[in-house]
Predict the 3D structure of the following.
Amino acid sequence: MFAFDLSKATSKSVIGQSSIEIAKPVSEVYDFVVEHFFENYTLWALEVVEFKPVNDNKMDVGALACQTRIDQGQKIESTFEVVTIEKDKLLVLNGLSSPFRNSYIFDSIESDTKTRLTFSFELLEIELFMRPFEKLIRVAIEEGTHNTVNNIKNLLIPDTESEAKPD
């Protein structure tokens, strides 16, 4: 079984993580999220108002994309890079213009009839003046991870009533 090590997070980072079970084989969930990332990302990341691949690479290590998000009423532009891809297991994106890391982890369950999708968002640094708001930032990140996995599940299996559980 594949394990993702969050212990590399620094004491200055803030991490949110949520998991959800999806009644689809891991290959289908992985295909939707990773193989068709550039087409599907804005379908589950509803706060993204502009998105485009930068270097027109296929979805592989080194691929770059720019996004504009509206978070808490703020317009935030960032560029990120695909840093890790493991077929049917893992996708990791690192922010280049902002200190963040996104990870999508795919685990096959129940004889590959279901997938456990885990999404984590790690804010790698918080500026000193923002430290007093760390708990609020953590809550917003956890809510974002929860929404991400639920949105993906609802896109793959419409009218889903179950929701993700924060880890």
User: Anything to note?
Assistant: The helical segments are 26-35, 37-44, 134-156. The chain has a mean pLDDT of 86. The chain has one domain: 13-158. The two ends are 18 Å apart (CA to CA).
